[in-house]
Amino acid sequence: MVRSLRARWTGLMVAMLALIPAVVSASTAASKQQLQAWQQQYQQLPAAERQRIQAAWRQYQQLPLPQQQQLQRSFSGLDQLHRTGWRLGPRLGRHWPGLQPLFAYVDPVQREALLQLLHGLDEPSLQRLIRLAQRTAPEQRQVLRDTLLQQPAAHRAAWLRQQAGS
After folding, report:
1. Are 19 and 13 in contact (CB under 8 A)?
2. How confident is the model at residue 154 (pLDDT cuts 50, 70, 90)?
3. 3-state DSSP helix/strand/coil percent for the chain, to nearest 5?
4. pTM above 0.90, yes or no
5. Which of 10, 13, 22, 95 has its CA 20 to 30 A from that of 68?
6. Helix axes 29-44, 2-19, angle to 10 degrees
7. Where are the domains positioned within the chain?
């Protein structure tokens, strides 16, 4: 129980560090643009995800400085793939390594619709989509994304169940 709470809290902290970068100085034009992009990503998250991150931020601010610095080092030590994934929020960030093959190279026109779709999936549907992503050849990923987007939201879970074979 304690381990699962610690893991969940750590995930929230990582997401918070990804979206509210306390260590980034906005002194250069490039870092200002990066900070603006992070703020925009944060604003696009569902309200529940933003609330979880805000709660984690409040907890983070109450930690002693050495613990804050350790969390910052841990986040900085993640590879770019994982840091990018955590910017999608705590829920999708946790699943990003499995989803990344399917959504890493998305046409910018589809990006917003796909993010909304991902945020709207329940946990079993996300797990099925991860299995599909792992089984889909790179040359077939665009077809899968297009077909997934064409599914009405009310039927998406059933479609994913059928496609994933579960």
Report:
1. no
2. very high
3. 80, 0, 20
4. no
5. 95
6. 130
7. 1-79, 105-166
